C-alpha cells in the first residue's frame, strides 16, 4: 500500500505537468482552436439542418422510421456532441512522434511514450468536455434541445468519455503502426470514414437496410455513435451492454498495442535510428 | 509561350518525382486507393438509404441527386489526385519554414506549392469515380450535348474549387498553424457536396455569391439537366475570373505576412 | 559595382506571453499581451561584386532575419534593399535566378528520392540547359567528392554528404549572389574543410558575391576578407578582418608553458593581465603589440620556457568578449 502511495506521489506531478503543457499546446494557436470547434457546428447548421428540412419537405407531421423532423434534428445535434467528445484526434502527435524519429527522447526521459500521450489525451478530453458543455448550452438557448434531462446528460457524458477511451486506444494502434507504415494518417482517415458511416453518425441506423444493421450489431461501430446519441436522447439509461462490448474490444486492443509496441521498439533500437 | 513551356517542363518533373516517391511506399499506395473507395461508397450509400424512405428530396428524384453526388465525387477525385496533399504540406511548410526555399524559386509560388504533390494512387480510382458518374448520368438520362460538355464542366468545377480553397488556405499565413484551416476547408467542401436548393435563401446567396462554393456542383449539373439554364454557367465562369483574380491579390498579401520560422 | 545595398533596414516581429495551466490556456484564448521584438534595427550595408563578407553575431542577433530579407523570403517592416539591382521583396523571376540561399539547418532536397532527382527538378525550375547542367554537376561533384552518392536516397546520406548535396543544389543555376547561413554547422573537421575549399574554388572561378554566417571562426578566417558584426539587430562593426581583431585594443595574446612551477608568479608578469593554470606552469598574457618582441625575449631568457605561441584566431576571443559585453561594440547607451 505504502509503495503504491509512494509511486503515486512521485508520478502525479509529472502527469499534471504534462497535462498542463498539452493544454497550452492545444490552445496555442487560438483561431486554429476555435475553427476546430466551429467547423462541425457550421456543417451541422448549414448542411444537416437544411438537408433534413429538405428531405422532410418542411412537413412536421411526416415520420420516417420513427423520427419526425424535430427528432431527426435532435439526433444530429447529439451526433455532433458525441463526435466532439468521443472521436477526438489527440493521437495526431503520437504518429508524428514516431514518424519524425522523436521516439529516442522517450527512451531517455523518465516519462514513457504511452504515459506522455495518455496525459495528452486526458488534457484533450477535458478541453473537449468543456467545449461540448458550451455547445450544449448554446444550442439549448436556441430551443433546439427540448426534453433534456440531467440524468440523460450525466449518463451520456460518462458513456462518451468511456467511448473516447476506446477511441484513443484504437488511435494509439494506428499511431504505432507508424514503425512500419510511412503515412499512418491514411489509416486514421479510413477509420473515421468507416466509423462515420457505420456508427450512425451521418444518418440514424434505423434508415439503413435491415441486413446491414443486423451485421453491424456484431461490430463495435453502433456503440460509438448511435447508442450514445440514444442515451443523450433519454431512450436508454445506464448502458451496461455498451460498456461491456467496448470493454472487451479495449482489452483486445490493449494487448495488440502492447505486442506491436514491443516489436516496433525492438526494430527501432536495432536499426539504431 | 516560353513561360508555359517552362511550367509544363517543371510540372512533368513534379509528376515523375511524385510517382517515384509514392511507389516506394507501396502499402500507403494501396491504402489510399481503399480510402477513396470507402469514401465514394459511403457517400453514395447514404443518399441511397435516404431515398429508401422518401421519393424526392427537394425537386430531384433519386437518379438526379445520385448524378449530382457522383459529379461532386469526380471533382473530389481530381482534387484528391492533383491538389489535396498540398494543403497539408503547406501547413507544415509554413510552420517549419520549409517555404523559404519555395519562395526562392523562379516559378510562381502558388504553382510550386499547390501542384508539386500529385497522388498517383488516386489515378487508379478514376475508373470508379467516372464509372459512377456515367452510370447515374445514363439513368437520368443526359442528352448528347450534356454528355459532350460534361468533361469541360468537370474541369471548370475543379478550377473553381481550387481557387476557393487556395484563397481559404492563405489564412494559414496569418494563423501560422494550418490544422484548423484545413479542417474548415474540408467542412466548406462538404457544404458544396449538396445541391444548392437544400439551403435557405440567405445561406444560398452567401455561398453562391460571396463564397461561390455552391456553384461548383449546382451550376454545371443544373445546366446539364436543363440546357436552357445558361445563367448558372455564366455565373460560374464569372466566379472563376473574379475569384481567380482575388486569389492572386490575396496571395501576394499573404506572402508579405510570411515570417518564416527562425532556424 | 554595388551588389547589395540596404538603408535603414528594420524588421519587427510580434509575439505574446502566456501564463501556464488550464485557466492560463483558456485566458490566452481571449486576451493576449503582445510584445514587439525588433530583430533587425535600422541596418545599413553595402557590398561590392565579388566580395566575401562574413556576417557575425550571437544566436538571435538577427543574422538569419537579415539574410531572409536580402533574399526576399520575408518582407522588411521598413527601410530599403537593393540586391543585384532588384528589390528582393518584389520576388521577380530574374532576381530569383540570380541568387541562392544555403541553410545549414534546413534542407531543400527531397528526402525520399536521390539527390540527382532533386537536381533534375531544379534544372527545370531554373531553366538550365542540359549541357550546362551536366558540366556543372560533373565539376561540382568531382570537387566535393560525391560522384558516387548522386543516386543514393537523400535520407541515407550522412550530414556532411547531405550538406554537400545542398550546396550543389543551390549553386546549379550559377547564382551571382550566394547567401550561406551556417553551411558547416554540425560537420566534422574534414567535411568543414572540404566545404570551405569548395566555396573558395567556386568564388575564384565565378567571382560570386558571397555572404556567410557561421559560428566557426575557422570558416570566417579561411574565406572572408571583410566582416560585419550584428548585435541585437544593430551593426556593431563593418570592416576588414584585421581591424576586427583590434576592436578590443591593439594587444596580442601570448601563452607560455614552463618546465617547472614558477614560484615568483606575481611580480614579473603582473602588468600584462596574466592568467595562470592551477600548477603555475602555464600563463596567458596580453602584450602591447609594439612590446611583443622585447617582453618575449625577456621571458625566454629568465624562465624555463618549453613552449610558447601567439593566438591563432583572435576573432574568436573578440566575439566571445563582445557577446558578453555587447556595449563594447554598440556604445554605452545600449
What's the helix and strand layout?
The complex is a heterotrimer of chains A (273), B (263) and C (334).
Chain A lengths: L1 H26 L2 H26 L13 H18 L5 H8 L3 H6 L4 H29 L8 H27 L8 H14 L11 H7 L9 H7 L7 H32 L2
Chain B lengths: L1 H22 L2 H26 L4 E2 L2 E2 H21 L1 H13 L2 H6 L4 H6 L5 H4 L2 H14 L4 H26 L1 H5 L3 H14 L8 H10 L3 H12 L4 H28 L6
Antiparallel strand pairs in B: 1-2
Helix pairs in contact in B: 2-3, 3-8, 3-9, 3-13, 9-11, 9-13, 9-14, 13-14
Chain C lengths: L1 E16 L3 H10 L2 E16 L3 E5 L6 H8 L7 E6 L9 H6 E5 L11 H11 L4 H15 L14 H13 L5 E5 L7 H18 L2 E5 L3 H7 L2 E6 L2 E7 H4 L6 E8 L16 E2 L5 E7 L3 H11 L2 E6 L3 H11 L2 H4 L4
Parallel strand pairs in C: 3-7, 3-8, 5-6, 6-7
Antiparallel strand pairs in C: 1-2, 1-4, 8-9, 10-12, 10-13, 11-12
Name its key features.
heterotrimer; B: 263 residues; mainly alpha; two-stranded antiparallel ribbon; 14 helices; 2 strands; 2% strand; globular; C: 334 residues; alpha/beta; Rossmann fold; Alpha-Beta Plaits; 2 domains; 6-stranded mixed sheet; 4-stranded antiparallel sheet; 13 strands
Q: How much of the residues of chain C is beta strand, in percent?
A: 25-35%
| Shape, principal axes of CA atoms of chain C | globular
Residue stretches of chain C low in confidence (pLDDT < 50, at least 5 long) are none
Query: What is the quaternary state of this protein?
Result: heterotrimer
**Basic shape of chain A:** globular
Main sheet characteristics of chain C:
6 strands, mixed
Termini separation of chain A comes to 40 Å
Q: Would you give an account of this structure?
A:
Helix content of chain A is 73%, strand content 0%. Chain A contains eleven helices and no strands. Helices cover 79% and strands 2% of the residues of chain B. In chain B, strand 1 and strand 2 form a beta hairpin. Chain B has helices at 2-23, 26-51, 62-82, 84-96, 99-104, 109-114, 120-123, 126-139, 144-169, 171-175, 179-192, 201-210, 214-225, 230-257; strands at 56-57, 60-61. Chain B has one domain. With 263 residues, chain B is mostly helical. By secondary structure, chain C is α/β, with parallel strands linked by helices. Chain C is 35% helix and 28% strand. In chain C, the strands form three sheets. Chain C has a six-stranded mixed beta sheet with strand order 5-6-7-3-8-9, sandwiched between helices. The radius of gyration of chain C is 24 Å and the shape is globular. The two termini of chain C are 34 Å apart. The model of chain C has no long low-confidence stretch (mean pLDDT 87). Chains in contact: A-B, A-C, B-C. Chain B binds chain C through residues 6, 9-10, 12-14, 16-17, 20-21, 24, 97-101, 103-107, 109, 255-256, 258-260, 262-263, and chain C through 13, 60, 64-65, 68, 71-75, 89, 91, 93-94, 96-97, 99-101, 103, 105-106, 108, 110, 112-113, 117-118, 120-121, 124-127, 181.
Amino acid at each position: 500500500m505504502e509503495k503504491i502511495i509512494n509511486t503515486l506521489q512521485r508520478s502525479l506531478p509529472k502527469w499534471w505537468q504534462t497535462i498542463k503543457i498539452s493544454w497550452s499546446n492545444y490552445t496555442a494557436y487560438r483561431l486554429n482552436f476555435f475553427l476546430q470547434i466551429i467547423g462541425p457546428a457550421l456543417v451541422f447548421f448549414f448542411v444537416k439542418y437544411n438537408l433534413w428540412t429538405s428531405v422532410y419537405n418542411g412537413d412536421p407531421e411526416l415520420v420516417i422510421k420513427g423520427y419526425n423532423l424535430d427528432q431527426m434534428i435532435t439526433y444530429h445535434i447529439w451526433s455532433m456532441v458525441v463526435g466532439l467528445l468521443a472521436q477526438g484526434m489527440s493521437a495526431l502527435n503520437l504518429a508524428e512522434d514516431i514518424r519524425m524519429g522523436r521516439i529516442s527522447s522517450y527512451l531517455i526521459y523518465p516519462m514513457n511514450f504511452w504515459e506522455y500521450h495518455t496525459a495528452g489525451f486526458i488534457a484533450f478530453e477535458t478541453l473537449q468536455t468543456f467545449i461540448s458543455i458550451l455547445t450544449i448550452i448554446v444550442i439549448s438557448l436556441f430551443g433546439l434541445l427540448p426534453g433534456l434531462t440531467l440524468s440523460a446528460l450525466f449518463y451520456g457524458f460518462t458513456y462518451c468519455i468511456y467511448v473516447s477511451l476506446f477511441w484513443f486506444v484504437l488511435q494509439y494502434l494506428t499511431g504505432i503502426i507508424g514503425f512500419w507504415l510511412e503515412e499512418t494518417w491514411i489509416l486514421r482517415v479510413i477509420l473515421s470514414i468507416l466509423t462515420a458511416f457505420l456508427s450512425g453518425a451521418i444518418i440514424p441506423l434505423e434508415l439503413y437496410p435491415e441486413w446491414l444493421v443486423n451485421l453491424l450489431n456484431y461490430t463495435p461501430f453502433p456503440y460509438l455513435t448511435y447508442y450514445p446519441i440514444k442515451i443523450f436522447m433519454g431512450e436508454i439509461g445506464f448502458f451496461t451492454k455498451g460498456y461491456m462490448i467496448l470493454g472487451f474490444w479495449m482489452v483486445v486492443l490493449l494487448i495488440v498495442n502492447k505486442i506491436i509496441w514491443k516489436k516496433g521498439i525492438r526494430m527501432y533500437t536495432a536499426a539504431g535510428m | 509561350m516560353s513561360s508555359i513551356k517552362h511550367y509544363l517542363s517543371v510540372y512533368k518533373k513534379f509528376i515523375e518525382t511524385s510517382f517515384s516517391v509514392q511507389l516506394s511506399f507501396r502499402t500507403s499506395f494501396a491504402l489510399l486507393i481503399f480510402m477513396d473507395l470507402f469514401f465514394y461508397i459511403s457517400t453514395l450509400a447514404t443518399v441511397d438509404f435516404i431515398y429508401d424512405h422518401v421519393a424526392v428530396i427537394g425537386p430531384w428524384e433519386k437518379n438526379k441527386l445520385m448524378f449530382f453526388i457522383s459529379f461532386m465525387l469526380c471533382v473530389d477525385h481530381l482534387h484528391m489526385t492533383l491538389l489535396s496533399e498540398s494543403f497539408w504540406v503547406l501547413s507544415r511548410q509554413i510552420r517549419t519554414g520549409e517555404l523559404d526555399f519555395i519562395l526562392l524559386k523562379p516559378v510562381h509560388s502558388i504553382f510550386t506549392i499547390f501542384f508539386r504533390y500529385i497522388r498517383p494512387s488516386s489515378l487508379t480510382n478514376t475508373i470508379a469515380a467516372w464509372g459512377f458518374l456515367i452510370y447515374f448520368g445514363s439513368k437520368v438520362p443526359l442528352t448528347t450535348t450534356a454528355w459532350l460538355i460534361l468533361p469541360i464542366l468537370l474541369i471548370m468545377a475543379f478550377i473553381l474549387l481550387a481557387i476557393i480553397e487556395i484563397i481559404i488556405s492563405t489564412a494559414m499565413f496569418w494563423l501560422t498553424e494550418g490544422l484548423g484551416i484545413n479542417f474548415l476547408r474540408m467542412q466548406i467542401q462538404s457544404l458544396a457536396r449538396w445541391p444548392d436548393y437544400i439551403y435557405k435563401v440567405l445561406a444560398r446567396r452567401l455561398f453562391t455569391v460571396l463564397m461561390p462554393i455552391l456553384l461548383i456542383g449546382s451550376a454545371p449539373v443544373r445546366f446539364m439537366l436543363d440546357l436552357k439554364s445558361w445563367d448558372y454557367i455564366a455565373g460560374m465562369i464569372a466566379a472563376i475570373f473574379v475569384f481567380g483574380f482575388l486569389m492572386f491579390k490575396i496571395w501576394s498579401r499573404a506572402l508579405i505576412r510570411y515570417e518564416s520560422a527562425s532556424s | 559595382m554595388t551588389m547589395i545595398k540596404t538603408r535603414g533596414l528594420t524588421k519587427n516581429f510580434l509575439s505574446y506571453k502566456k501564463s501556464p495551466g488550464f485557466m492560463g490556456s483558456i485566458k490566452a484564448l481571449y486576451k493576449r499581451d503582445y510584445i514587439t521584438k525588433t530583430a533587425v534595427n535600422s541596418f545599413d550595408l553595402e557590398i561590392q561584386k565579388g566580395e566575401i563578407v562574413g556576417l557575425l553575431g550571437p544566436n538571435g542577433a538577427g543574422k538569419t532575419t537579415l539574410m531572409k530579407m536580402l533574399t526576399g523570403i520575408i518582407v522588411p517592416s521598413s527601410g530599403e534593399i537593393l540586391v543585384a539591382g532588384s528589390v528582393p521583396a518584389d520576388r521577380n523571376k530574374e532576381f530569383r535566378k540570380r541568387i541562392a540561399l544555403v541553410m545549414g539547418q534546413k534542407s531543400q532536397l527531397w528526402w525520399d528520392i536521390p539527390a540527382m532527382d532533386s537536381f533534375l527538378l531544379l534544372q527545370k525550375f531554373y531553366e538550365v540547359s542540359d549541357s550546362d547542367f551536366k558540366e556543372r554537376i560533373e565539376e561540382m561533384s568531382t570537387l566535393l567528392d560525391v560522384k558516387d552518392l548522386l543516386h543514393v536516397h537523400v535520407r541515407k546520406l550522412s550530414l556532411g554528404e547531405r550538406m554537400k548535396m545542398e550546396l550543389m543544389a543551390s549553386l546549379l543555376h550559377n547564382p551571382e549572389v550566394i547567401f550561406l547561413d551556417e553551411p558547416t554547422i554540425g560537420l566534422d573537421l574534414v567535411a568543414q574543410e572540404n566545404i570551405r575549399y569548395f566555396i573558395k574554388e567556386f568564388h575564384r572561378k565565378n567571382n560570386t558575391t558571397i555572404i556567410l554566417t557561421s559560428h566557426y571562426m575557422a570558416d570566417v578566417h579561411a574565406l572572408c576578407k571583410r566582416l560585419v558584426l550584428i548585435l541585437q539587430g544593430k551593426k556593431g562593426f563593418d570592416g576588414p578582418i584585421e581591424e576586427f581583431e583590434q576592436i578590443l585594443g591593439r594587444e596580442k595574446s601570448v601563452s607560455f608553458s614552463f618546465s617547472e612551477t614558477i614560484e615568483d608568479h606575481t611580480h614579473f608578469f603582473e602588468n600584462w593581465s596574466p592568467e595562470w593554470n592551477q600548477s603555475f606552469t602555464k600563463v596567458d598574457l596580453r602584450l602591447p603589440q609594439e612590446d611583443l618582441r622585447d617582453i618575449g625575449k625577456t621571458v625566454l631568457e629568465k624562465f624555463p620556457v618549453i613552449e610558447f605561441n601567439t593566438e591563432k584566431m583572435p576573432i574568436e576571443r573578440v566575439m566571445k568578449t563582445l557577446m558578453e559585453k555587447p556595449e563594447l561594440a554598440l556604445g554605452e547607451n545600449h
